[in-house]
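[step 3/7] fold_predict: job queued, chain A
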Amino acid sequence: MDAAAAARRLRAFKRWMLARGVVCSDALRLDASDPLGVHVRAVAPIHEGDLVATIPRGACLTPRTTGAARPIEAAELGGCLALAVAVMYERARGGDSPWDAYLQLLPDRESVPLVWPADEAERLLAGTELDKIVKQDREFLCEDWKECIEPLISSGELDVHPDDFSLDKYFSAKTLVSSRSFQIDDYHGFGMVPLADLFNHKTDGEHVHFTSASDDSDSDDEDDDEQSDASADDQSTIENPTNSPSGSRVDDEDLEMIVVRDANEGEEVYNTYGTMGNAALLHRYGFTELDNQYDIVNIDLAMVTKWCTSIFSSRHARARVSLWRNLGYSGCTSQDAEYFEISYDGEPQLELLILLYIITLEPDVYDKLICVARDLIGDEEHDTIRNVVKFVKGTSSTPNSKLNGHDELHDVMKKFLHSESICSALLSLADMRESLYGSNNLEDDEEKLQACCIVTERKLYHSLVLRVSERRILYRLRKYASSRSKTKKRKHP
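[step 4/7] structure written:
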């Protein structure tokens, strides 16, 4: 969209806000001059506690307010799928839609990996945390369209042209729902909230939060405790702190936009979508942040098993993993995959260290652990950890290995899990994980990122930010292992 067209659509949206009762403070300015999209800027200082916008719930586009509400309810669609149908339907209505001026301001689709050309996504995301996820997303959405959207069109209840509900249009609508929707309340469910979705995200740097109006002016502290900008689904949310029963109408209550951190004149005003790493940000919203401290790298259990098999045997791997499970341990799970997280600073997940400890145990110590394994399992996780700490201490050759009562159990455990064999295993796993990115190295990616333009090479830029961040974490993992390993130091990027 060129600058002139963007300015025209922004003017139309402002008229629409006025007509629908959406109020935006004079201290804020909607700016359409940025090629990356509309954003919000302060034209006067704003201060903590200021009310800078109110949005009637009836102005939000939801499965309840759309003209397709009855067919959506009859088809028993819910959540983001129902909202995607509402967005497609209102777009199909064009100028007849009550939300036309709002929808015209939005891009046709957000540039999330879901809608990147398949070959390009595969090339740009190779090795990253999104590599498999995006492929799975496409499969799931195709199934949703086939099982839910296609029958809805065939029924004729929506009275729209089938092309307006094509698979491609569904993907486009899903990108908007993924990146812009809010969980409003029990009655409306997920919805598109005009004005609220124009604020860009900044991790730990937001200026505004959203909440619903309350008749009790003394309940601000309680509301702040209850409100959240990210639901369990990682969706932005607007909590309803009132005692309205589930399913009741709350259209008479405006959504409020409250300043939680001062902003000076000329500053961009940010919201937050929650504390997310770059993989989640790119996946859902189509952008990344440099030096995002919430970034992680995952190492699959399958990769650990593969490494174990290459060093020992398949039988050894099965037996050691089985003992690890018998102690009550498991990794993180997502979409039928089990994995371990490596944190931003290169610290491996405790469960991985315990598994590597068990894998690399000498046969005699392994036999002892088998004999006492059942006795180590406590009623709570921390009880099991404490018991395993005692066992590790008893078999450790590390001098002066004393427990500090003030240390966290997890930290204490990690102090005892830095044997030469475990650190060597971590280095090997880091190499295996690194190999997934291809033949180039960290320095190559850093140079490409330096030369990349975020405006003209958006997909390349954000995929590089993600990959560079992940590879730096693997570098820190190597440093973490090498600093405590007695093996000969190896050269790493």
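[step 5/7] annotate
Residues 213-251, 485-493 have pLDDT under 50 and may be disordered.
The chain has 18 helices and twelve strands.
exit 0
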